[in-house]
Amino acid sequence: MQQHALLITAGLLTTSDAKTAHGLIRGTERYTVRGVIDPPTAGRDAGEVLDGIHRNIPVWATVEEALAATPELTHAIVAVATSGGVLPAHMLDTIRTCLTRGLSVVNGLHEFLNDKPDLVQLAQTYGGELIDVRRPKRRDELHFWTGAIYSVTAPIIAVMGTDCALGKRTTARLLTQACREAGLSAEMIYTGQTGWLQGGRYGFVFDTTINDFVSGELEHAIVSCWQETGADLLFVEGQAALRNPGGPCGAEFLVSGNAKAVVLVHAPKRKYYDHIPAWGEIPSVESEIALIRAYGSEVIALAINTEACSPEEALAFQQSYREQLGIPVLLPLEQGVSGLVPVLQALMTKPQPPHAHS
Amino acid sequence: MQQHALLITAGLLTTSDAKTAHGLIRGTERYTVRGVIDPPTAGRDAGEVLDGIHRNIPVWATVEEALAATPELTHAIVAVATSGGVLPAHMLDTIRTCLTRGLSVVNGLHEFLNDKPDLVQLAQTYGGELIDVRRPKRRDELHFWTGAIYSVTAPIIAVMGTDCALGKRTTARLLTQACREAGLSAEMIYTGQTGWLQGGRYGFVFDTTINDFVSGELEHAIVSCWQETGADLLFVEGQAALRNPGGPCGAEFLVSGNAKAVVLVHAPKRKYYDHIPAWGEIPSVESEIALIRAYGSEVIALAINTEACSPEEALAFQQSYREQLGIPVLLPLEQGVSGLVPVLQALMTKPQPPHAHS
User: CB A248 to CB B279 under 8 A?
Assistant: First the structure.
């Protein structure tokens, strides 16, 4: 059955807290996105709010208006990733309204809808479902790392970043699409809840996994994907950043996921981790590349997130990083990523290095 | 009430799978260890089995013999850390016997006793408790990282290693004791179940924590410890190794825990991660030190795990690493660690570096 979804962003649509919504507006195979609830931007098109491209996704101030215009709606999606994964209190009212109108509600936050008795009651009464995407798997569904990753002969490319919320998932998605358009069989392994919401078949939700199982779940996702699809190239969506103090992350992709190649996403104008001065300055791209090399992997391209850049500045950064680093530098949203396909294709002919360390 | 404990190692006492037992035999403030169940070494003293030092802890073949000799026993502890955290099947019989004799059973594996209805029934009938140390905390007991770590002015020293099961916890414990004997107020933050079993007041079980909360739980443990004890020096027990593919770990201590100093434990004779050739070779100490430096922290001393070394070889390794690395090299079990106290004391007078990265 076709699933028609309404995104709830509750006033956050123009902020990076709504990165889940941004990903779903850009594209999802699991749902057809039909509208967004976001009072401050109501009346506009969500695509235009996001990046100026009209996508025929109206923004509404209320659930009633959305349902009046789109009676075929089946799901409402809590499409924000707030700091701490907590549900903003005022969002609960919107969720209650959706449930009383018979919609199912999908939630990717750490705070679970199924833990709230009044919501469970409303869902039962009106026939909706409560879907908590981040609900951890049962222990007997989890995998430990085994070393099976070393049987994968397709190149594994991790899309990592120098901070959170930079467009790692979007870049991985664009790279996968560009390879497919060039006739390569490429697959993407998701590692966040948005990847699941977008219809990803292989992956797991990294940050909601019990630590001891992270490496095994990652390996299992990559190995099953490769075995079942026979893909030529495997892109792994990265999470956070190697040195983001709020949750350093990345060694798993390089070491347990055996990603010997990395596409690194960086925002030249972002100064502090998570935009918070007290969290410390984001180190230079050069030092991030050196750290990745210390793990035995190579950054094969830089992808620039152009937040706060004018178009001229974006091009100037592209030029200067290219000269400085000697690797391809992408502007994924402005120029696409197809220019990198030959580089990726070359990885396929290279014999995969053994897993020995220096 | 004094808690008298019997350790269950089920034939593994002489292997590194029994590292939980080894730690408890070396010392615990939570329990008084009165005996071990381990048929292959029955009749000997557990301390002598461990390292040749008699500790008045008899090894028994059966629970009945242990109880006959030690009727004041209150607890049995599953004192192994098997690969995958699964309970060896034959251990279940021993656990049932303990429960029918009224003992409480403590378990640090990922497989929980409270999930087994027949054990729950036995505990209820005979009045024992089932304590699953690795049972994850409830979500509302967990902390996110906040940056409060930067308020800690005492040096934070992570005890890390080039592989699992090398003696990181034991080294951290010895360092804490040596500092205290020298009149310094030192505290240790545990990060594994054995640390809790040994009576640690500050810490959390790293590998059983939902990934998104690891950094926050670590920060919370360090900050509360420092605030409540006013310690001069804080030692953090490391886990696994930065590049162990089964579960790379370490950035959390360096970045989220702001440990600018590291004592690195290494076994010169261990060739492969977890002793498994397919997991890959353990990289050189130099490359591990370089990787730690790429995170902005310094290795201030190497501690040698002398497994498979003759006493002469151990001394030769100490000498050659000292020359090669230019830092103090400890043989913790053979020589103690008090020689490092002046180096640690010097850290206290150094102004703590800001958290800026290179």
Answer: no
Region A100-123: mean pLDDT is: 94
**Chain A within 8 Å of B137 (Cβ-Cβ)?**
no
The CA distances from residue A4 to A57, A123, B287, in Å, are 12, 18, 52
Considering only CB atoms, A214 lies closest to which of B211, B254, B296, namely: B211
| Distance (Å, whole) CA B202 – CA B190 | 7
Least confident interval from A16-25, A218-227, B149-158: A16-25
| pLDDT, tens digit, 9 for 90 and up, residues B246-293 | 999 999 999 999 999 999 999 999 999 999 999 999 999 999 999 999
Q: pTM of this prediction?
A: 0.91
As a whole number, mean pLDDT of residues A123-127 equals: 97
Instruction: Please state, in angstroms and rounded to a whole number, the distance separating the CA atoms of residues B321 and A6.
Output: 62
Contact A75, A103 (CB under 8 A): yes
Distance CA B242, CA B168 (A): 13
The total of other beta-carbon atoms located within 10 Å of residue A40's CB is: 14
Cβ contact A276–B147 (<8 Å): yes
B160 chain-A contacts, CB cut-off 8 A: none
Distance in angstroms (rounded) separating the CA atoms of residues B132 and B120: 12
Q: What is the pLDDT of residues A268-287, one digit of tens each?
A: 999 999 999 999 999 999 99
For residue B264, which of B329, B183, B216, B346 has the smallest C-alpha distance?
Answer: B329
Do A209 and B211 lie within an 8 Å CB cutoff? yes
Angstrom distance (rounded) from CA A107 to CA A194: 10
Give this complex's ipTM: 0.89
Place of tokens 């079990």: B333
From residue A115, give the alpha-carbon distance in Å to each of A14, A103, A107, A112. 29, 18, 12, 5
CA distance A322 to chain B (A): 21
A193 has pLDDT over 60: yes
Say which DSSP state B189 is in. Answer: E
pLDDT at A224 exceeding the cut of 90: yes
